[in-house]
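Hi R.,

Here are the chain sequences for the assembly we discussed:
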Amino acid sequence: MSHCHVDKIVDVPTGSRQIVLAGNPNVGKSVVFHELTGVYADVSNYPGTTVELFHGRFGDDVVIDTPGIYGVSSFNEEEVVARDVIIDADLIINVVDAVHLDRDLFLTLQLIDMGKPVVVALNMMDEVERAGQKINISRLKEMLGVPVIPIVAVEKRGLAELKNSLSQAAQGIPTELGIPQAAAASETELSRAAQLLILEGDEDVAARYRQQPASYRDHIYGKRRERVNAIIDDAVEDTQSRAGSQLLSRLMVKPLTGIPLLGLTLFLMYQVVGVFIAGNVVDLLEGTVMGEYYEPLMRSLIGRFAAENSVIYEILAGEFGILTMTITYLVGLLLPLVMGFYLFLSILEDSGYMPRIATLVDRVLTKFGLNGRAVIPMILGLGCVTMATITTRILGSRRERIIATMLLALAIPCSAQLGVITGMLGAVGGWYFALYILVIFVTLVVIGTVLNRLLPGQSTDLLIDLPTLRLPRPVNVLRKTVNKTKMFVFEAGPLFFLGALIISVMKVTGLLEAVQSFLYPLTVGWLELPRQASTAFIMGIVRRDFGAAGLYDMALTPEQTLVSLITITLFVPCIASMIVVFKERNWKEGLAILVSCFAIAFTVGGLVAKIL
Amino acid sequence: MTLAQARPGQLLRISQIPDPVVRAQATRFGINEGADVECFEVVPRGPIILRKRRQEIAVGRRLAEKIGIELHKGQVRI
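And here is the predicted structure of the full complex:
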């Protein structure tokens, strides 16, 4: 990954310091960040990543929030971003979870070893006593050599002290690494931070300074781990045995109880997102607000300076108009659905349930060459495949990203489509519904298994931290939901416009009709559907729900309904997802994925038609 | 023996983690080579969940098959 100096993304005026918040995932960093900077925070995507970087001001200084990491190096995207921000930092506020010092202090020591002035914010102090622990703060401070401020960020306790302590930020006592002087002090030009990372074998940083990465990582990590253990033994006292509430954690990962719990969660999600949002909210927004007020207004506005049959009118306000259909789709349909999905995702993340779901389903996903973490894009795919495909970046290897992208494009129906599908299948009877689910599921399993066998290389294994289960705080959940939704609008929004533009151009140039007539023989001969069904398939590329809705108006037998819905589900995803597939993969892999989706859709659809 | 053979409730010492990246990530979580941990839970044919102090870590089965462990017989502080 190429290096990009932080000051290019965040404007740090000369003379002001760059204060960086660093810490493990879910330790309350963002709460501390918002307390420091107030409401005026900006968010920008780190170039080439999905990683969001929040930045704001604290007095004359710039504060940057980094993604949660367990250590500084380049094992994944988040670490690379955090590392680059940390290397440039003038002062680091290290937020740690007081109940999990064993895990969190490793990063703390690494930051101290990097020679940065550090203040440790010991968060979640209210939970320490409940967990049966006692922390000797002055001892901790003495052993680290930096200020240690106990806080309860969500209750704003200790934050004034934290702000005051920034002036006392100190370099701290580095870990005695016992590395030969020659290796440790090779280049005095380099910052201590860069030197340390090169010693730890960080290839990115080494390449940046034209150095050879060293191989002291095991040695240094070992020393640091020993020191963490020694600090904990000295400064943390367990006042009661670890009884605690481990029961729920167990119930969540054991299949016998975990599967029903997951089922219940998904059912709740379906009730809120699938029934309430997709039904009531979308009806109001898409049907009434956008359909009855916004679109007619837009059409009449554009009609004033462009004739109704002109190309300009067609592109701006026609059937797939950028200002009519696309805006309605984005604002009226996708936005509420995506927001609903992100709301659930934020609750699952903040409560600590998400990594436990990943643990529970790991066994199934490894059959497809994925690991439990892939459950996140899969669940998101039921919301919006476009957004889920972007999220495949969190997966550990290229191989996993290809498999997940393919499965999303092929067999995961997005919420826009699900509504129409359930409506149509519900009307023809429960048996067809069951058959539909069976066929899609079998296709998913077969293709996943085949991809796992065929693709070279090896997928990464599950190795995740299961954080303490906590009741999520509504404010934090809402903030997270809004931020993620914003990211979706910025990242995926333009693609929907681009997609509509492409389709409109295809329509005015007659290309769309050519594709439709190309599909006729397949549709009529092979799938045994009426000719007009191919129009529905093409519409499905514009908006997946349009495709399914187009089938509504045709007089189809129940068998034909089933065949057409199976085909349209497996058929290539909407044009915005296709663009993301090409963007995230490369044109070769993208083309391979989309062509196989197309082939599999018609093969499976045809087989079902012949069997029935 | 390997971590994949561990049973819930057993106390064990991690003796070997062959993959360097996994070794580094595990060290950050406190389950480095030489660390004493408790097998907290085992998902049948799925991940093994380790516990050290208040930390729970899930390890995928295939990875667990590559991690060497020794069982503790007597009392040990985790």
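The mean pLDDT of chain B is 91. The helical segments of chain B are 20-29, 61-64.

Let me know if anything looks off.

Best,
T.
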